[in-house]
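Good morning C.,

I know you're traveling, so I'll keep this short. The sequence:
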Amino acid sequence: MWLNMQAPRKRQRGIALMETLVSILIFSFGLLGLIGLEAQAINFSVNAEDRNRAAMFANEIGSYLWINDTVSPSAAQKNTWSNNIQLSHNPTSGLNGGTVSVTPTAGVANSADIVITWQQQSDPTAAVVTQTLTTRITIPPT
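The tokens, ready to paste straight into the viewer:
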């Protein structure tokens, strides 16, 4: 009888260790998945921040055009906007490789398209992606 009780125990030696190793493996895969999701969330957050900055620049340009009742700003004003939007000139609120263009809309009186482009690089090993924000402003006749 004593031999029969010992035999089942010998066959199950190490099962608890195997179960522990499998649970650690499953937990590790879940943890890696969460880290990947966090990286994606950071990329989306950076993209949203850049889009918000571009929208604020477009709003500033649109306000200037509206106040001055023109859709054709001077070259000096365009240069100022270009300097403000570039990250190298404005490190706290600029856009990486940011450019701005204001073009009067053909066929529509007192209307202009404000196009802001910038470069987004979410991963140092990934290719640079060019992002664009376009806003149209129409100034009512006075």
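Safe travels,
E.
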